[in-house]
Amino acid sequence: MNSVRKYRSQKCLNCNHDLDYSDRFCPYCGQRNSNEKLSLFNLLSEYFSGVFAYDSKLFSSIKLIVTSPGKLSIEFLSGKRVRYVNPFRFFISVSIVFFILISVLPNIDIDNLNGVINTSEGLSDSLSGKGDNEIPKAVFEELNSNHYLDFDEARKKFNLKDNFNVELKFLYIRAMYKMTHEPQAFTSYIYSKLPFFIFFFVPIFTLFSKLLYIRQKFSYTDHLVLNYNLNTVFFIILIFNVLLMSIFDLSWTKVFMFLFFVYLLIATKRFYGQGYIKTFFKTSLSIFLFILSSFIVIFMMLAISILFF
């Protein structure tokens, strides 16, 4: 005990907060009260303690969020935050696992995205026979064989106008051909953007939650915590579905979506404390608004992504 106390000081080395020799940790910033020279053992033990502390939080959070819909959000907002993962970090951790699985597991077929690629193929074929005053037919023919053609090269070679509208049209046409010839590359490109899209979309969607429960005494942050946790559950369900699709070539998408809807009903009823009928209608409306607004934002994201692909 004395060997430990001799390394303690009366000032926190991190934030300079006043300490007592009996303080094991700084009450202000949480750093250990020790001026002992850092050794390899200290460095490794600090690393593994941080890892296992996060793991224990993660397992506790997963267990509670799966077995007791809505309770994790209630617990976190009530102040019990040390034992659970921050909802933003929890969401990011689970979504990253999902997108890693999507990228590495075989036999994963995303029908919606394949539909987009097939549509682009038909569009590029229809465009290939057309030309106008700004983009002549020769540019389409060149892009069909060389879909990495630079705008400056095309401008000089085909005497294109040097303005924003022409460049924007050129980039769009080039992206159509790239999507046609390299659909897998486009798929990977879109997947890399999805975690950021969803993470930043949830705060926007939370405005609808605030309006739906405007008479309830919940702050915007309260709704935000619940929505991030609900989307975390959604990704957990998707992970199970992806594993089934990859390992057993079996998709239970409709079953999982039904289970998620039931989960939403239970979670929102527990969180907001309203009756079953109100909860059912508000949850159904919330899902409709989520799908509608996400389609609009996804369309905008795809349009922007295509230009820079």
Explain the overall architecture.
It is a single chain. 71% of the residues lie in helices and 0% in strands. It is mostly helical and 309 residues long. The protein has two domains: 2-52, no CATH class; 53-309, no CATH class.
Give the SSE map.
Blueprint (H helix, E strand, L loop, with lengths): L1 H4 L34 H28 L3 H7 L9 H18 L6 H17 L9 H9 L5 H8 L5 H18 L1 H30 L7 H28 L5 H20 L3 H33 L1
Helix pairs in contact: 3-10, 4-9, 4-10, 5-8, 8-9, 9-10, 9-12, 10-11, 11-12
Comma- or semicolon-separated keywords:
0% strand; 309 residues; extended; single chain; mainly alpha
| Helix content, binned percent | over 70%
Number of strands: 0
Note the run of SSEs as H and E. HHHHHHHHHHHH
Which residues form runs of ≥5 with pLDDT under 50?
109-129
Major sheet attributes? none
What value does the Rg take, in angstroms?
A: 27 Å
> What is the overall pLDDT average?
76
Helix count from the secondary structure assignment: 12
Q: Which class best fits the helix and strand makeup?
A: mainly alpha
Percent of sequence in beta strands: under 5%
Overall shape: it is extended
What is the number of independent domains?
2
Distance between the termini: 62 Å
